[in-house]
Design goal:
Layout (H helix, E strand, L loop, with lengths): L4 E6 L8 E4 L9 E6 L2 E6 L23 E3 L6 E3 L5 E3 L9 E2 L2 E3 L2 E5 L6
Antiparallel strand pairs: 1-10, 2-3, 3-4, 4-8, 5-6, 6-7, 9-10
Length: 117
C-alpha cells in the first residue's frame, strides 16, 4: 500500500449502483461513504454541508430509490454522485467534501487523514 493511504474496502464490497458507509477512523470525527457507478468509485465525507449531520438515517442508504442521486435524510437535499454538488434543497450549489480515491489490487484506498477533521 502506498505511504499515506489506507484501505477503505475492497472493490467487490461495493456492488454496482450501491453505496456503503464507513465509520470515522480512530481519532477521527467524520465517517465516509462510497458509491460505485460503473467503473468509478466516489468517496465523500459523510456530512451534509447544510448542517453537518450524517446524510443517512438507515445504514448504507445514501442514494435515492433510483440510485441516481445522493440524498440527505435530514432535509432532502439532493447531490450529484459524480461531483457531490447539491442540486436541490437548502444548500443548492454547496458541495459534499470529496475524498481522493486510488484503486490498487482490488482495494479502494483513501488518504490516511480522510475523516479525521
Amino acid at each position: 500500500m502506498p505511504e499515506g493511504w489506507r484501505t477503505l474496502c475492497r472493490v467487490g464490497d461495493l456492488p454496482e449502483g450501491e453505496s456503503r458507509g464507513f465509520d470515522a477512523p480512530p481519532g477521527g470525527f467524520s465517517g465516509l461513504f462510497a458509491i460505485r457507478k460503473g467503473e468509478a468509485i466516489h468517496v465523500y465525507v459523510n456530512s451534509c454541508p447544510h448542517v453537518g449531520v450524517p446524510l443517512e438515517l438507515v445504514p448504507n442508504r445514501f442514494l435515492d430509490r433510483k440510485g441516481e442521486m445522493i440524498v440527505c435524510a435530514a432535509h432532502g437535499a439532493r447531490f450529484r454522485i459524480a461531483d457531490g454538488e447539491c442540486v436541490s434543497g437548502p444548500c443548492i450549489g454547496d458541495l459534499l467534501e470529496a475524498v481522493p480515491v486510488r484503486i490498487e489490487a482490488d482495494e479502494v484506498l483513501v488518504p490516511e487523514e480522510a475523516g479525521l477533521t
